[in-house]
Amino acid sequence: xxxxxxxPAEAVRRNYAESLETWRIACGSGVPSLAADVGPGAGFPxxxxxxxxPACRFHLVEPLKKRARFLVVAAEELGLANxxxxxxxxxxxxxxxxxxxxxxxxxxxxxxxxxxxxxxxPIASLxxxxxxxxxxxxxSEVVAAEHAAxxxxxxxxxxxxxxxxxxxxxxxxxxxxxxxTPGAYPRRAGVPAGRPL
Length: 197
What we know:
The chain has helices at 8-26, 46-52, 65-77, 90-95, 113-120, 138-144, 146-152, 191-194; strands at residues 34-38, 57-61, 83-86, 102-106, 124-134, 154-161, 171-177. By secondary structure, it is of the alpha/beta class. It has a single domain, classed as Vaccinia Virus protein VP39 (Rossmann fold, 3-Layer(aba) Sandwich).
């Protein structure tokens, strides 16, 4: 279905192993009860994490209908009763039924942090964590996102490397939601991308 640009030779490491590594970091203080994945695409990391943590409920927020349909079918075929797919934009999810519900919010390869935090923070519960895989620019993105983090009530916990046997490059940026998301956020669809905080 042409859902990922990662070729078969790299798929096990880039998609599955990195998804599992992200989930391992997310579960550092125990497996959460409810997690959300913003923009899972072909199911990475959310669908992979759901397969290994059946006791955790997963909400996959995927705005592209083709990908959302695939995620529904994949979850059914894999017997993942703990997965619910939301075919909506993150801005809509963060203003609707998913506002401040998730113990952990995941988002991989979605946007730079100043924009991404506005998608993810409204979905996280108070005290919840945002676990965001990033590439070599992780530290500079964190600096660029300082204002967004302050506005959205999240604090940086740390920037953790993936284990070298899994990946040579990505880092995982972890935030904790320290205050409720202000009512003005997320802004309407398209605004976070056009005018990042």
